[in-house]
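haha ok so turns out i had the wrong file open the whole time. this is the CORRECT one, sorry everyone. sequence first:
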Amino acid sequence: MKNLSRLLFALVLIVSFNNANAQNQDNPWAIGFGINAVDVYPVGEDAPQGDYFDEFFNVKDHWNILPSLSTLNVSKYVGDNFIVSVGGSINKIEKWGQLTTPAGDVDVAVNDLNYYAVDAGVKYSFASLINSKKFEPTLGVGGGYTWIEEGPFNSNGAGNKSNLGAGTLNGSLGLTYWFTDNIGFNVGTNYKHAFSDDGVKHFQHTAGFSVRFGGKDTDGDGIYDKNDACVDVFGLEAFNGCPDTDGDGIEDSKDSCPNVAGLVEYNGCPDTDGDGIVDNSDKCPTVKGLKALAGCPDADNDGVADGDDKCVNEAGPAANNGCPWPDSDGDTVLDKDDKCPNEAGTVANNGCPEPTVPDAVVLAQLTDYAKTILFDTGRSSFKKETYSVLQAITAILKEYPDSKFTIEGHTDSVGSKTTNQKLSDSRANAVRTYLIENGIAADRLTAQGFGEDYPIDTNKTKAGRKNNRRVDVKLKK
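then structure:
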């Protein structure tokens, strides 16, 4: 026990890899202490040791627990969620595993073998990744050196009960619950793989407490950085470490005018003219004005500040610099919106006179003419007697230059649907082409074929099919 006490004293100054806890930039250092349990059984070796993870949680039969302070550590946060640590632990080994006999499994005991370990490594903290300030999972890797007193299952033949040591490669998992920013409870497990015959592969489980410390005070104002809202600027405790440069009782970060004393109701800014608009937002800080005009006056109440109003005493829109818009033709459509400013018109037609459109009589006449348009059989070429009809349609369309028309082609159901669709398109466009060539603007005319889809009569009779073969000229609304 004398040697154990000396080692315990030395371990106060170092950190154990298997019990290290994560820190942050505000408290980069941590000291941890607790108990550990050593399990040499589920490590993939021959009996009396067993397969990997076999009876991993069999505390009663396989865990060697020293019921006192047996693990001490110090660790340091180095940035980017990584922590480095060095440390050590002590224990007593009396459970070595089990043997299978005809009578059943028999636990194998040894005679309180001394256990010492010094380990170091690096861990990664997942606390920031899961956005938690309380729960902190860790994953680590490292190495160390472990001594286990020579016993019946770890002997090198010397027979002098010496402590057999070996280097180990360590991998660990841990979880810490932080009660406060500085105190936490942690549990973890660490697998140690020995590199030599004198070593013993084993698991070491830990539980204990950690205390974080070492917070910085960058600006020297007596407030640690983790509690200092203004880390790089000397400030006041009343304002969580932030300054109040102008001394108006409002910290600079909340003071819209940090260098000029002001009022709380104006976020620390003054209001010289008393119009309820702080000076740094008041375009006319020495003259009482309106909030809507950034503190400037408006004599004619037209919403344009006097300084920008070219008609100060006559109300007008801002778009016309505070002057009223003219209406030259007196049609109630202002010149700015009037497409015919010198000719009286209607509001519906943007200030221009309403265009003349064909009435129902004219449209009926167009329909009658269109029904007499005749094409060569199966083609889009016109029969000779159709040209007089097309000339009459052209004459009517010229009388209404502001109107637009749609030319629709239709067929009967004789032949394939695809062929009839193409033929109706071709015939409708043939009429449109004729009208354009004879003086009707192209943008006034659209043409579309509908094939056999919209019959106006039966396709079972010759007369019905004749009626269905037609061209319609319609006013485009």
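The helical segments are 2-11, 59-62, 360-371, 387-398, 417-437, 462-468.
again sry for the mixup
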